[in-house]
Design goal:
- The structure holds two protein chains of two kinds.
- Chain A is an alpha/beta fold.
- Chain A has seven helices and seven strands.
- Chain A folds into three domains: about 110 residues, no CATH class; about 50 residues; about 55 residues, no CATH class.
- Chain B is an all-alpha fold.
- Classes of the chains: A alpha/beta, B mainly alpha.
- At the A-B interface, α1 of A face α2, α6 and α7 of B.
Chain lengths: ~260, ~260
């Protein structure tokens, strides 16, 4: 074999290897079968070009490009200055509907960022390829930490400013707890000495007597008695201090009743 | 002692000056006719095609050792080697493929070039060329320089991808990660530009070999001992230069990430 042929074969091998490598790496894909969508965010949370796009956890595409759009506004009038162009395989395109949401999420032990697309409902229509959609901005961990620091600072400041009253409150609570503890101990003593049981027994006896009394009232004799008492009370209704005095004076009895 | 040190320092500056002159003359001759295409192809066959089996064989084992060791260390440190396929790929592509290929080519081609040019020097063949009106740099250095640059570029690509394939096999049969797992891990860490930078490194390393070898060949002293010394010096200097250049290029490329 001639030198030229060997050199040519080596070059062709190298070129083929590069193409295969680029294909597996996703840098080169001439047989692409995907649609594009433009997602608008105000904070992308570390997503990079090449980050995966997943629908229901399955990789269906990639982040194709990230573009800053200082003048971009959504239909609602909201200013959204970052545009992420993603590709979605045609096989998964129909599961993405206009009510789908586009979250930025974390995966794996190294915290790889990806775009998670929630599947939409069948009643809603599909997106048009290249349509601009508002994505869900991820929570900013740095802001949360900063706010936590602020909150912790305010708590510290409050404690420092009201040191006396805080200590007083704690002392009062301490006393309260001590007293409660004492009360509980007393209750325990009472329970263990049997006094509580005696009281309970007395209550049982009283309730038994009351039951017997109400039962006897319900009998014919009882009803008559109640009727008589009722009459008596009705008659005694007009009997006040003046009437009693008059009665006693009429009867010739002189007494100081009131 | 001071005189000896001074002489040594002056000789180092002399060497730097002579190598710079050689590089400059080579660059000028590279872009000006007449071009020696047949010599270039012959050298390319010698440097690239004939070195390819040795390079592929050696880097395969280097890649296998790398991934096994990486897994061992990760398991020892964090009891988990899930990230090994990914960062081993990156290590192979960014460093291992280019550097090991260059060192192998140096030991095979650099030594041969120094011995060949050195023998021509001491047998006055180079003087004969001058007598015939042929520029020694255009005739001897340029075809070898171009062949080594292109061979370095090509062999680095082939070595990297063979390395990755071997690492993939080891991860499948030894570490228990399938080809799919390996590729997913690789995609997490490796970008296409890593292969491009690695190939550029390979080309730069390839450029070092003929310049250093031809320099020592032209400076070769008479006798078998002189040729042996030129060969040894050429391999040592090329290897050291490649490692220093590797550091410089890695530092420069780090600004592109």
């Amino acid at each position: 074999m001639k030198s030229e042929t060997k050199v040519g074969l080596l070059f062709i091998t190298a070129v083929v290897m590069v193409v295969i490598f680029a294909y597996y790496l996703g840098a080169l894909n001439p047989f692409t079968n995907a649609h594009e969508l433009r997602l608008a965010y105000n904070y992308a949370g570390g997503v990079e070009v090449g980050s995966p796009v997943r629908v229901m956890g399955i990789p269906v595409g990639k982040v194709k490009s990230i573009v800053f759009r200082p003048d971009q506004k959504m239909e609602s009038g909201e200013e959204v200055k970052l545009e992420i162009v993603i590709t979605v395989d045609k096989s998964a395109w129909k599961t993405i509907r206009t009510d789908s949401r586009f979250y930025i999420n974390l995966a794996g032990v190294i915290g790889e960022k990806f775009i998670e697309v929630s599947p939409g409902s069948n009643e809603k229509s599909e997106f048009a390829p290249g349509q601009l959609v508002r994505g869900e901005d991820p929570p900013r961990i740095d802001q949360l930490i900063s706010q936590s620091y602020g909150l912790a600072g305010k708590i510290l400041e409050f404690v420092e400013k009201n040191e006396g009253s805080v200590i007083e409150t704690i002392n009062t609570m301490n006393k309260l707890v001590t007293n409660l503890n004492k009360a509980l101990k007393q209750m325990e003593k009472v329970q263990s000495s049997g006094q509580l049981r005696n009281i309970a027994d007395d209550w049982v006896t009283i309730s038994d007597d009351l039951a017997f009394f109400t039962q006897s009232i319900r009998s014919e004799e009882g009803k008559k008695t109640v009727h008589l008492i009722n009459k008596l009370i009705w008659r005694l209704d007009a009997l006040d201090a003046k009437a009693i005095k008059k009665f006693l004076q009429e009867e010739g009895i002189k007494a100081k009743l009131f | 002692m001071v005189t000896a040190m001074g002489t040594k320092v002056i000789s180092i500056f002399d060497a730097i000056g002579e190598v710079s002159y050689l590089i400059l003359k080579t660059m000028v001759a590279l872009f000006t006719p007449p071009f020696r295409f047949k010599d270039f192809v012959k050298q390319l066959n010698f440097v690239a095609v004939e070195s390819a089996p040795v390079v592929v064989f050696c880097v395969s084992f280097a890649a296998m050792v790398t991934i096994i060791e990486a897994s061992f260390h990760m398991k020892m440190v964090i009891q988990n080697d899930a990230m090994v396929p990914g960062f081993s790929s990156l290590l192979i592509i960014r460093e291992l493929g280019a550097v090991i290929t260059a060192l192998l080519v140096t030991s095979r081609v650099g030594a041969g070039l120094a011995a060949e040019v050195g023998t021509m020097q001491i047998t006055e063949q180079i003087d004969a060329l001058k007598m015939l009106g042929i520029e020694k740099i255009r005739y001897l250095v340029v075809p070898r320089f171009l062949a080594c640059v292109i061979a370095g570029f090509t062999l680095t690509i082939i070595a990297n991808l063979v390395c990755l394939y071997c690492a993939m096999l080891v991860s499948q049969f030894k570490l228990g990660y399938t080809f799919g797992n390996f590729l997913v891990g690789m995609r997490t860490f490796v970008q296409f530009q890593d292969l491009v930078f690695s190939s550029i490194k390979g080309a730069c390393f390839g450029a070092v070999i003929p310049i250093v070898s031809c320099y020592y060949g032209f400076k070769c002293k008479a006798g078998a001992e002189g040729v042996g010394l030129a060969t040894t010096n050429s391999v040592v200097t090329s290897s050291v230069s490649i490692l220093i250049l590797d550091f410089l290029l890695s530092w420069i490329f780090s600004f592109f990430y």
